[in-house]
Specification:
With 581 residues, this protein is α+β, with helices and mostly antiparallel strands. 42% of the residues lie in helices and 25% in strands. It folds into five domains: 132 residues, Periplasmic binding protein-like II (D-Maltodextrin-Binding Protein, domain 2, 3-Layer(aba) Sandwich), CATH 3.40.190.10; 101 residues, D-Maltodextrin-Binding Protein, domain 2 (3-Layer(aba) Sandwich); 39 residues; 111 residues, Beta-Lactamase (2-Layer Sandwich); 148 residues, Alpha-Beta Plaits. The protein starts with a helix and ends with a helix.
């Protein structure tokens, strides 16, 4: 009996001591609430383990994320130990409360329906939503047309009611995780992703890929609430008072620990002093540099004169017509030789780009524009193309025109282009520039550049998907005659087995062939490509056992903005990997 009385006395003294210590720090708790804390030192808190950066678990199951910072604060303020219990389902967390396995759920969305035995605190953390897209995408230009875009959500349909309320006509796709959705966004499967703003920040910061994407805040948000069993009224009151005690600065600190781009930027005194020292050193450096620059200006002027004279000598030696096109002013500056090639005087040549294009033969217009576009898009380091230009006498002359971008704008668009015109000799045009390859009998890489951009443009207008299949022939022995015959037979077979009516094929050189056809279903396109591969492999096998056929594929889904060059690059990587295997 004395032992029981001793234990009771110690417990009461402990409660009294704890009550006194809380008076200075706790958020105005009443006596019954303080007593509840003293008699319940451990509270089991369930948390969603797959909702970064708000709550997630590491390999050891530890409670991490913005919400964990809240509960660390609660522990220090209330002297309660929160025992975390992970789960990846809201329904499972509610069931655990019902069965008495946990006391509270760290946070649940305010708009999420909860069972009747659940009570919730007031909202305490606003969750803004954003639309993520690639920088080159146009999805952010008009939110009113969002319903026409391919928008993805994560598999957790928590955001769906909010989105349906704001955009009732939107029919979003679902992806397992935000990481997977971003990966599919990169490959053109989606136009955009709607997700929690801080979740997007967290993923992009972790992957260090900010420069690839842009995200814009949507007019939607929700709040988190703490959920607990309706019987725990005192704990509910304690948590609500504690939440009311949190300031905006404290909330920002909880967030900034997990989302780096929200970190506060505070300039301290020592930083100002360091900045002033740096400015002083910079000023001294500029004084010395000014003296060096002034001494070098004369050398630069001399070098410029030499470079100009050198360029003039090269142009005259090549008998070339030079041109410089200022895109912003739409002025094309040419020399005398440029004009005399076509029988004009210099002042008779049109000075605008449209004026120049009016001289290009109609059948070569697409070829000229395609070559120019591929260079401006930085697919090829220079543009070089053979076209026919109209002479003053009304006939056409074969001209080799080539050049490069001389200056770019800060946004990556071209500012000034420059180049030359040459009159090609009879043997100047290589076999790769001929419209039809003599060996294979199909269109060459030269015409691939002209036709494919137009082909893709039409596919996008038709809202059709495009399948690209690359074939590579490899030979066991270096037998020139065998190669020539095999390329000829393969070119004929590829042309005969092309999927109609949209199939195209080209010989790209170096034993590589490309084949394009329209197909809206990627699975069906792969089946057609495999059937085509088997037919062509049979043709080669029946001809010689020393020839091996490799295949690489890439697919552009309907309505995608994927560039043809990117599609070709993906197929070529696929081809290289298969070849190495």
């Amino acid at each position: 009996m004395q032992f029981c009385q001793g234990k009771l006395t110690k417990a009461l003294l402990g409660i009294l001591f704890f009550t006194i210590s809380l008076q200075a720090s706790s958020p105005n708790l009443v006596q019954s609430e303080k007593l509840w804390i003293a008699t319940h030192p451990i509270v089991r808190v369930g948390f969603h383990s797959a909702n970064p950066p708000y709550s997630f678990a590491n390999k050891n199951g530890e409670f991490l994320g913005i919400l964990s910072s809240y509960y660390t604060y609660f522990e220090n303020l209330l002297n309660i130990q929160f025992q975390p219990v992970p789960s990846n389902s809201w329904d499972e967390l509610f069931e655990m409360i019902k069965e008495g396995e946990i006391d509270i759920v760290a946070a649940v969305p305010k708009h999420l329906k909860t069972p009747k035995y659940i009570q919730k605190t007031e909202g305490f953390l606003k969750i803004p939503l954003s639309l993520l897209s690639l920088r080159k995408s146009s999805v952010l230009e008009n939110f009113d047309e969002l319903a026409k875009k391919r928008i993805a959500l994560t598999k957790d349909t928590l955001l769906l009611p909010l989105i349906k309320k704001q955009y009732p006509n939107l029919k979003p796709f679902t992806s397992k995780t935000l990481q997977e959705a971003i990966k599919d966004l990169d490959f053109g499967k989606y136009d955009g992703i709607i997700a929690q703003t801080r979740a997007i920040d967290f993923e992009l910061d972790r992957a260090q890929t900010w420069d690839k994407y842009i995200h814009c805040a949507l007019p939607m948000q929700y709040e988190f609430q703490i959920a607990l069993h309706s019987d725990l009224k005192l704990l509910h009151s304690i948590l609500q008072k504690t939440l009311n005690n949190i300031t905006l600065n404290q909330e920002n600190r909880f967030i900034s620990r997990w989302v780096s781009n929200h970190k506060e930027s505070i300039i301290k005194t020592w930083q100002i002093a360091l900045l002033l020292c740096a400015l002083s050193l910079a000023l001294i450096f500029l004084i010395f540099k000014y003296r060096l620059v002034s001494s070098k200006n004369q050398k630069l002027a001399t070098n410029y004169k030499l470079a100009t004279a050198h360029l003039k000598a090269v142009v005259e030696a090549l008998d070339a017509g030079s041109w410089v096109w200022d895109i912003d002013k739409n002025v094309n500056i040419v020399n005398e030789r440029y004009a005399s090639m076509l029988g004009y005087k210099k002042d008779e040549i049109p000075t605008t780009f449209d004026g120049f294009m009016s001289l290009v033969a109609p059948e070569d217009t697409a070829l000229m524009l395609a070559s120019l576009k591929r260079h401006i898009d930085k697919i090829e380091p220079f543009f070089s193309v053979y076209v026919k230009l109209r002479h003053k006498d009304g006939t056409y002359r074969d001209i080799h025109t080539f050049g490069t971008v001389l200056a770019w704008h800060k946004d990556g668009s071209p500012k000034i282009l420059g180049g030359c015109h040459l009159l090609p000799q009879a043997n100047r045009q290589s076999s790769s520039e001929m419209p039809i390859d003599k060996t294979t009998g199909i269109l060459t890489h030269h015409h691939y550049r002209a036709f494919i951009p137009l082909y893709f443009k039409q596919a996008r207008l038709e809202f059709s998907g495009v399948m690209l299949v690359l074939f590579r022939l490899s030979f066991q022995n270096e037998n020139i005659n065998l190669k020539q015959q095999a390329l000829s037979r393969f070119g004929t077979a590829l042309f005969e087995h092309l999927p109609a009516p949209s199939g195209l094929c080209f010989y790209m050189g170096e034993e590589i062939f490309s084949s394009f056809f329209w197909c809206d279903d990627p699975n069906e396109a792969q089946i057609i490509a495999q059937k085509l591969y088997e037919q062509l492999e049979t043709t080669l096998t029946s001809f010689s056992s020393e020839i091996f056929l490799h295949k690489g594929t890439a697919f552009m889904i309907p309505g995608s903005n994927v560039d043809e060059a990117e599609l070709y690059q993906n197929a070529y990587i696929n081809l290289a990997q298969r070849s190495s295997n």
